[in-house]
Automatic annotation (TrEMBL):
Highest taxon in the source lineage: Eukaryota
InterPro entries recorded: Pectin_lyas_fold, Pectin_lyase_fold/virulence, Pectinesterase_cat
The protein's name: pectinesterase
Boundaries of every Pectinesterase catalytic domain copy: 67-351
Signal sequence coordinates: 1-22
PANTHER family: ACYL-COA THIOESTER HYDROLASE YBHC-RELATED, PECTINESTERASE 49-RELATED
Source organism of the structure: Raphanus sativus (Radish)
Annotated keywords: Aspartyl esterase, Cell wall, Hydrolase, Secreted, Signal
Compartments in which it is found: Secreted, Cell wall
Length: 361
């Protein structure tokens, strides 16, 4: 009897696991035209994933609540902050906050006690969160227009801006649009606007799809383990400009930025793909279109020469005039297919356990 029971358990394990594990190991295809089909096959809706997600998320998605915000009236609330404050601390259900189109001038923080929140604008209609916080007034990390500490956060169809003026060249003008410190967060069709330090992608596993990120210096920075898919990185301004400043500090930390089927655009020339803010940054660009705005050396030279041996700067099958690697710094990783695949799957962000498709308005 015991043998039969163990055999049944083994059978269930063998045939139940592949549905989850396969999502984590199936790489994003090289052909950009196949990306949407890959996404639909590997990021299926809750109805098809019930029982396979993180237990807390599984329970939260079973009975979502909808809150509406309209500055002109007719919604449940007139401000985003009022809507968030209405959600109890210790929340256990998915709460979808639907925002009517318009410009919301608010500084918004979602604290750690309010997980499972979705902020959603209407597709095709501009919905903007904006504030002008600066490092001089709030400190760099607290200057963001939107700060999220909570787990399982989702944003869709939003413009998130920091409207502080562009700092003068060489000055410390940090002014964040967004700071994400919550684990297991997803961003769909969102646009982030700022100059220095636009997006603080700091702690946890994060996913960005069909987004746009604009800035000057270190405009994506932090300690995140993040996958960016079909996202445009746009450089503005002049002088020294750098896209990423990843804050990995040891070989043992499981984090890094992976940009797949992205597009690098901007004005002028000479922008760097990344720099060693800390000793062990990990940044990979795969299947990414790089315009001539990219500096031929690719990555900023390390001020600390010891970092030449500890940085991980990878490029794989990128295209465009900025992708030519003849003049790249010597410590650029020319990764092969097997090595690239680890950055091309949902397993990089443990996505099979938490990532769901974008919500519908």
């Amino acid at each position: 009897m015991g043998y039969i029971f163990l055999t049944m358990i083994a059978f269930l394990v063998i045939f139940a696991l592949p549905a989850v594990v396969a999502n984590d190991i199936t790489p994003i295809p090289e052909d950009k035209g196949q990306v949407e089909a890959w996404f639909k096959a590997n990021v299926q809706p809750y109805s098809a994933r019930r029982g396979t997600l993180d237990p807390a998320l599984d329970a939260a998605e079973a009975s979502p609540q909808i809150i509406t915000v309209n500055q002109g009236g007719g919604g449940d609330f007139k401000t985003i902050n009022e809507a968030i404050k209405s959600i109890p601390t210790g929340n256990t259900k998915r709460v979808i906050i639907k925002l009517a189109p318009g410009v919301y001038r608010e500084k918004v923080t979602i604290d750690v006690g309010r997980p499972f929140i979705t902020l959603m604008g209407k597709p095709g209609a501009e919905t903007t969160l904006t504030f002008d916080g600066t490092a001089s007034k709030f400190g760099t990390m607290e200057s963001a227009t939107l700060i999220v500490w909570a787990q399982y956060f989702v944003a869709a169809n939003l413009h998130i801006r920091n409207t502080a003026p562009m700092p003068k060249a060489g000055s410390q003008g940090q002014a964040l649009a967004m700071r994400i410190n919550g684990d297991k967060a997803a961003f769909y069709n969102c646009r982030f606007y700022g100059f220095q330090d636009t997006l603080c992608d700091d702690i946890g596993n994060h996913f960005f799809k069909d987004c746009y990120i604009e800035g000057t210096y270190d405009f994506i920075f932090g300690r995140g383990a993040s996958l960016y898919l079909n996202t445009q990185l746009h450089a503005v301004g002049d002088g020294l400009r750098v896209i990423t400043a990843h804050n990995r500090q040891s070989e043992n930390q499981q984090n890094g930025y992976s940009f797949v089927h992205c597009k690098i655009t901007g004005v002028g020339t000479g922008i760097y793909l990344g720099r060693a803010w800390m000793s062990h940054p990990k940044v990979v660009y795969a299947y990414t279109e790089m315009s001539s705005v990219v500096n031929p050396t690719g990555w900023q030279e390390n001020k600390n020469r010891a970092h030449d041996k500890t940085v991980f700067y990878g490029e794989y099958m990128c295209t465009g005039p900025g992708s030519h690697k003849e003049k790249r710094v010597a410590h650029t990783q020319d990764i092969d297919k097997n090595e690239a695949n680890s950055f091309l799957t949902l397993g990089y962000i443990k996505g099979s356990l938490w990532l769901l498709p974008p919500p519908t308005y």
